[in-house]
Amino acid sequence: MITSATRCKSPTRICIAAWLVALGCETTEGSGGGDDAESPNTDVHVEDVVELDEVTEAQDVVDDADGVAEDVAEDATSPDAGHEDTTNPLCTPGVDGCPALVEPSVVSVGEAGRLILRGKVVTPGAVFDGEVLVVGETIACADLSCSERPEAVGATIVNANGMIFPGLIDAHNHMLFGIFDLSDWPIEKTYDYHEEWADAPGYEAVRDAYDFMIESGQAALKCEVLKYGEVKALIAGTTAVVGQPKGTALKCFGSLARSLDGGFNDLPKLAAPPFDVPAPCTASASNDHIQTSFNPKVTASYATGMLENFAECKTWAWHVHAGEGEWDNPFAIEEFEIIKARGLDVMQTVIVHGNAFGTEQFEHMAERGMNLIWSPRCNVALHGQTVRIDLLKQVSGPPITVALGADWSLNGSTNLLDELAFADAHNAAEMGGVLSDADLVDMVTINAAKVLAVDEQLGSIEVGKMADLIIVSGDAADPYRALVRARPANIMMTMVGGIVLYGAPVLEPLMPPGCEPVAICGQSRVICVAEGSTADKLDQSLEQIQSALEAGLSQYDAVAGTDFMPLSPLVLCP
Fold first, then answer.
1. Cβ neighbours of residue 471 under 8 Å, at least 6 residues apart?
2. What is the pLDDT of residue 83?
3. Is 354 part of a structural domain of the chain?
4. For residue 511, is it within any domain?
5. Domain holding 449: CATH number?
6. pTM of the model as a whole
């Protein structure tokens, strides 16, 4: 088996360092939905972006990607989709006190579209032994018992034999970089400020390969790369992601995990946000109210357009990369001052990173109702430091809501579980344990939903919300800790909108047709990637997607004389 260390193309510190340093981040590039400099609009495709004047060409990357892929063929020579994680200290199920894995069991198979899950229900603010009734794409009941409800008649019944959590939400992830990993851009030093590494030769080499894969190569592999990232998300229990790049027109962007910052996220269209606004909303109902910006140095015209979007309720959450750098770096702090000067220090604004910020910035954010997305692996890898959560939690105003984002796989997190575990380790080692396990779980569930303004639909197990659910095998006596320590092998089911898209083989009768086997860290799983439609390559299997990506990377390596093959692993295994 190839390990994460042996795959490194050069024996650098980042390939072999201890877990708290061998990790990564993203760029000053944008995630998700549109970002138009003159007239910000969540409906604008990223292809239509007008770059801001202050941004250098190296900064003006508007892509995303997390994803990490690897061989999923189940044969004698390659039985496992994961590579060994030689840096991850988390325990292996059944070893060193970790509970052995227990699969769900199907009690009875009923009619399609009705499902009762029985087990330890874990949702923000409540933990109980009970049932969750799913009818269609929504949650119809979450209680000690749902079996007597009229809607439960004829439902399929599944014993989780573990914990039932809301699907995890990755609040920030550049998914189109998911075919790369830390071996593709070895980092030899940390940087004071994000603009210092944007033109690093290693990163530029990755950018060239990325452009080839997305825009040329094998007839442009945008769909394949994105779906690979979403496969990785499903395997780690992540049902929704902010990280959709370069437009929203492709149907493949809505095929697996929800791409929340795009029109194919399958959420109901709403006109009013889940928070109070000073004037009636005038924008049409939509299911995409998230806007992202990779450049905090916004122009006056951009700010005017953003404020109009806020007033009309067109944009409910503006995610802006700001404050990326070492603690108190003046250039990173200046970015926050520009946001304030433009009048964009409002409750819809969510700071992505902010690792340079101190008490003054956090106090202002709290006073203005602003929130934050934390990607500690990225910050530590590129800047040596991350957000001072201990200072953030001491603000005198209303608490700042913090969500977690895996960021990208190029320098670190393979999935949101990895980022969650890193945050836990950093919390214990560097922050005096200021965060509880429940705090950390909130960051990938309800807090993420809040900073994305989708908390009326996602983030908790409540009646009327979308049935995005996962089953986790682990210590049900300490469920929050169990999720924080969970590895992909612990994920027994991932459901999106009432449809089981990934899970233990015993659940295959509940899945759509055309699913395929995949081995994850020695465990047999089934994943549903191919769909019936041929539009935008929706009919591709995981094996076909991987083959196309391998062909594209091989083609690029042959032309450019590089060494970007093999693909990054789908998971890292303890």
1. 104, 117, 119, 160, 162, 163, 164, 165, 491, 492, 493, 503
2. 62
3. yes
4. no
5. 3.20.20.140
6. 0.86
